[in-house]
């Protein structure tokens, strides 16, 4: 390094000619600025080190005076080079404390000039931006979460009353998008109350058959004889009481979609006729002999294990394979608890508008809902929210308004808690809080990303 010994200075040289009171005042100001102030000569030797610098770098002033500025971790030669050229340096560099801890700092270095306007040293101002960097990372994380949730909400909003942004629901949406335009049979499997009919209707509404009927046949409600006549229709005089000809569900659904709900309860004696109708697209009315061509897409749903029923000879294997060209498995609500806050808000807004009420739900209620297993799934949640809106006396729903069956799940046994490290549990809590917070904010702002971003001080990316 080229030395500038003929231009070496000291602090006294820099304020030479100033009155003592002015010098004391200036030093007092620099000592009490809440940023690190370091003054060096052109060779980088430290000639002033204020009190905040001592706190920041963990060095006492007498330990660094006369030593090269690199002791503070400042190893960028271009900084001093710019000062020698009479230029100011602004930027972020990594500095280090006495114990070797590195930290990011925002630095401004300004040249000190003599009476001939030539640089003779520099004043450096440094500020630790470790916390600022961490906050920036957190903002970027929240921004990514916000954008991901907006993507999920946008996808979820395509399906009306089907609400959810969990990974399981995103997979279902993707599968629905694939099968909707295709004229294939679909089997929807899931517990009661999971929304199988909603999924079937959404597939129909996005299919080329959307302008034709969507007909629902509940296979669990009727006996074999009645079910057959309802599905295929009957001719006049086919049985006692058949005074006129009647079209069945297949004919009514012609050109559209026939939704066979609870297909697992279909009697064996009807399964063969259904197979022929599905396979050949031809039906015979009860009491009729003329074949009738039908064109209805079949979507079936069940809460039973049809493969197990096939093994037990309770369900025809050939019919099972005809119906399950594509199978959509809907998870129970207890397996997608991250959707509960969103579903709760959705139903709360829906029924508050219907009943003409304005009711707020306390966070403690959301928390309680997330701990309850919901054996009745989404239907149970929807019905409970309707009940709470109707019977609640005030404009706020609190824990005391909840039924005992939900309150009973608020204190889980420690033995039931999964073993996790502190770090894993902390990350999960933070992630869950972040996700729920962003979902709540997005729903509050009706999915408006820009407004949500402004409220939580994030940028809205294009």
Which terms summarize this structure?
single chain, 462 residues, alpha/beta, Beta-Lactamase, Helicase, Ruva Protein, domain 3, Rossmann fold, five-stranded antiparallel beta sheet, five-stranded parallel beta sheet, 19 helices, 14 strands, elongated
What best-fitting shape do the alpha-carbon axes yield? Answer: elongated
Low-confidence stretches: 413-422
Distance between the termini: 48 Å
Total domain units = 3
Short description:
It is built from 19 helices and 14 strands. It has 462 residues and is an alpha/beta fold.
Textual characterization of the structure:
With 462 residues, the chain is an alpha/beta fold. It has three domains: 5-128, PAS domain (Beta-Lactamase, 2-Layer Sandwich); 139-151 and 336-455, Orthogonal Bundle (Helicase, Ruva Protein, domain 3); 167-333, 3-Layer(aba) Sandwich (Rossmann fold). The chain has helices spanning 11-14, 20-32, 51-57, 61-64, 77-84, 130-156, 167-179, 196-205, 224-232, 249-252, 268-280, 306-311, 317-323, 340-355, 363-371, 377-391, 404-407, 422-444, 449-455; strands at residues 36-41, 46-49, 89-96, 102-113, 119-128, 186-189, 214-218, 257-261, 282-283, 292-293, 297-302, 326-329, 360-361, 396-397. Strands 2-1-5-4-3 form a five-stranded antiparallel β-sheet. Strands 7-8-11-6-12 form a five-stranded parallel β-sheet. The chain has a two-stranded antiparallel ribbon with strand order 9-10. α6 (130-156) packs across α18 and α11 crosses α13 (317-323). The longest helix is centred in the N-terminal third of the chain and has 27 residues, at 130-156. The chain is elongated. Mean pLDDT is 84; it is low at 413-422.
